[in-house]
Automatic annotation (TrEMBL):
<dbReference type="InterPro" id="IPR052018">
    <property type="entry name" value="PHP_domain"/>
</dbReference>
<dbReference type="InterPro" id="IPR003141">
    <property type="entry name" value="Pol/His_phosphatase_N"/>
</dbReference>
<dbReference type="InterPro" id="IPR004013">
    <property type="entry name" value="PHP_dom"/>
</dbReference>
<dbReference type="GO" id="GO:0035312">
    <property type="term" value="F:5'-3' DNA exonuclease activity"/>
</dbReference>
<feature type="region of interest" description="Disordered">
    <location>
        <begin position="1"/>
        <end position="33"/>
    </location>
</feature>
<dbReference type="InterPro" id="IPR016195">
    <property type="entry name" value="Pol/histidinol_Pase-like"/>
</dbReference>
<feature type="compositionally biased region" description="Basic residues">
    <location>
        <begin position="12"/>
        <end position="28"/>
    </location>
</feature>
<dbReference type="GO" id="GO:0004534">
    <property type="term" value="F:5'-3' RNA exonuclease activity"/>
</dbReference>
<protein>
    <recommendedName>
        <fullName>Polymerase/histidinol phosphatase N-terminal domain-containing protein</fullName>
    </recommendedName>
</protein>
<dbReference type="Pfam" id="PF02811">
    <property type="entry name" value="PHP"/>
</dbReference>
<feature type="compositionally biased region" description="Basic and acidic residues">
    <location>
        <begin position="1"/>
        <end position="11"/>
    </location>
</feature>
<feature type="domain" description="Polymerase/histidinol phosphatase N-terminal">
    <location>
        <begin position="75"/>
        <end position="140"/>
    </location>
</feature>
Length: 453
């Protein structure tokens, strides 16, 4: 009997070790991670804890109870919908993210924020949070008068009520979108000269009504026309930076975009630095004008010497070395280390899935530590504009994104103060709301009535 007991114990120990090797055992959080997790989840579930309808209360409570046992809060900080060059609508994108366990989704379409309202409406059904974002197309020049230009993409992340100077940002983005139309037409012209006939109507149809076409739309048209076998081939042969069918649009300088993101209350992050020819120089220059972070948590960066990398057989080691390189760059310049899947929904081998890039909780906490004061300032600026001039135009800045629109329809708010109280309870923590500035704004709006028609 004693022998049987020892055998059973050894068997259990073996099973336990196997489970640990497979990653089945959960690591216990450190004190620092636990504090970070609590801070992150407080923000993630903020609007659910203040939900006012019964169905949302039930869903919100369910989520809040579950978060105690779910130590993995998934943020997806880089995604695209069919409002730019993605394949899925914002609604379908949110649904897919929810199925993948994503709690916070940043929709970062190229040069447009038009898909944000639809994403937010859908996210409400799933108890998810949307970060209004955009990926801005820019160029970088090493020096004045330099003829060598390099495409650089800057991610901008905004608060729940969006940019503090919406019109300024929208005009800036509209100019880039106009350039994308001209750029696509020029690429088609170059392809036609290369004996690869393509029609503008074909590309425009793929892009969709009102969507500024990009290289991916042209590549899809090339595949459908039978000129190439797949998207990868279209880019590798014709559409790569500087390729025979490549063309530039009216992209602004990267430094100008970063400065604009600052002015409009956003967080500026360099997208996919591994695609750049000289990332160190670009990061250094953009840091000087206010860059907040760069994408690090991706597996396809390539700053380490290529010849050295080719000698490495261990694929996991290779990925680690590449990631460490960008981590070092971020540390050198004091930048946030972020990342996302850059999901487009094209399917097939090689595309990262929504939520596949798992950001550590300490990274998420660092992100919010930097972002939340900036977003709080932007919200304050928007509310102050309305308090100083309670016009419909300024009111629209409050209700453009998030649940402000729903509040106007569903809550009998008699004055601006009531609207501000409700909005702040959804957007900010108790600590963030308790400021003299917000109290002064509410006092100004206490006698301002809202037209709820």
């Amino acid at each position: 009997m004693v022998g049987d007991g020892h055998v059973e114990k050894r068997s259990k120990d073996k099973k336990k070790k196997k489970k640990q090797k497979r990653g089945g055992g959960k690591k216990k959080m450190t004190a620092e991670q636990s504090l970070a997790f609590n801070s992150v989840t407080e923000w993630v579930y903020l609007d659910q804890s203040h939900s006012s309808s019964s169905s949302e209360d039930d869903f919100g409570v369910h989520q809040i109870l579950n978060r105690a046992v779910d130590n993995n809060v998934v943020f997806e900080l880089h995604s695209h919908s069919n409002f730019s060059d993605g394949y899925l609508s914002p609604s379908k994108l949110v649904e897919r993210a929810h199925c993948n366990g994503v709690k916070v989704l940043a929709l970062t379409d190229h040069d447009t924020m038009s898909g944000i309202p639809e994403a937010i409406e859908t996210a409400r059904r799933f108890g998810m949070k949307i970060i209004p974002g955009v990926e801005i197309s820019t160029i970088f020049c090493q020096s004045r008068g330099s003829e060598s230009e390099e495409p650089v993409h800057i991610l901008a992340y905004y608060s729940s009520c969006g940019p503090s100077k919406y019109e300024e940002l929208e005009n800036f983005l509209a100019n880039i979108r106009d350039g994308r139309f001209l750029r696509a037409k020029d690429m088609i012209l170059k392809l036609n000269k290369l004996k690869l006939p393509l029609k503008w109507e074909h590309v425009a149809k793929i892009a969709g009504k009102g969507v500024a076409p990009g290289r991916l739309h042209v590549a899809r048209a090339m595949v459908e026309a039978g000129h190439v076998e797949n998207l990868k081939q279209a880019f590798a042969r014709y559409l790569y930076d500087g390729g025979p069918a490549y063309s530039t649009g009216s992209e602004p300088l990267a430094e100008v975009a970063v400065q604009l993101i600052h002015r409009t209350g956003g967080l500026a992050v360099l997208a996919h630095p591994w695609a750049l020819k000289n990332p160190a120089a670009i990061i250094r220059k953009l840091k000087d004008v206010g860059l907040h972070g760069l994408e690090v948590y991706r597996s396809d960066g390539k700053l380490v010497d290529v010849n050295f990398l080719e000698k490495i057989d261990n694929f996991l080691l290779l990925l680690c070395l590449r990631q460490i390189t960008y981590t070092d760059l971020a540390d050198t310049y004091g930048l946030l280390k972020l990342g996302g899947s850059d999901y487009h929904g094209r399917g097939g081998h090689g595309e990262s899935e929504l939520g596949s890039v798992k950001l550590p909780v300490l990274v998420l906490n660092d992100f919010l530590k930097v972002a939340r004061p900036i977003w709080c300032g932007a919200i304050k600026e928007i509310l102050e504009s309305y308090a100083d001039e309670p016009s419909d135009s300024n009111l629209s800045h409050i209700t453009r994104y998030g649940r402000g629109k729903m509040l106007k329809r569903n809550y009998p708010l008699n004055c601006g103060k009531g609207l501000v109280d409700e909005c702040l309870s959804l957007w900010l923590t108790n600590e963030e709301r308790q400021s003299a500035e917000f109290e002064a704004i509410k006092l100004k709006l206490s006698h301002v009535s809202i037209n709820q028609g």
